[in-house]
Amino acid sequence: MSLPKSFASGCRLRGFSRLIFCLLLSGLLSAAYAQSPGAERGANSTLYLYQDEGAKRERRLVEKAKEEGGVLIYTSMNTKDSIPLTEAFEKKYGIKVTLWHSVGEKIVLRALTEARAGRHDVDIIGTNGDQMEILYREKLLAPFYSPSLQDLPVAALAPHKHYVAARINFFVLAYNTKLVTPKDVPGSYDDLLN
Length: 194
What we know:
Elements: H1 5-8, H2 15-26, H3 47-51, H4 57-68, E1 71-75, H5 79-93, E2 97-101, H6 104-116, E3 124-126, H7 129-137, H8 189-192
Parallel strand pairs: 1-2, 1-3
Helix pairs in contact: 2-5, 6-7
């Protein structure tokens, strides 16, 4: 799976990470705020854009972003990776991207605080899965469609389709081989309790 060359120039990430971030930036995997439950979805609602499966989807997303004057992203991705990707996106689409970097917990706190105050300025949120799940449960994320989803492993997709895994964290167990024999190494988290 690779990104079109026009996207990839100037990006330092490779493969899956670059694909996901660039898709996030382009709005193809938008985790934009949904309207509150029961709210009227008028002609100005952008929710239809996130679920659009039509051939003109990308053009509509780009037009809407330009109309709004840019894209605001809250992300926990490091600046070494996010800034070159943002610059490549801005060059391709001519849309200004504003990044706000923080750790996942602060991103969730800011998004929740703003939503409760009636502010819905952020367009895309990119952070760890557990924080995205909090935002989903608080009804701050809109369901979306992207033709690029078919290129992702099924495990990367949340069943409710309100966000997609953009990175994978690995947890490993290290042990002292002088104190623990290989046959005594725990095989699961439950084994650690014994």
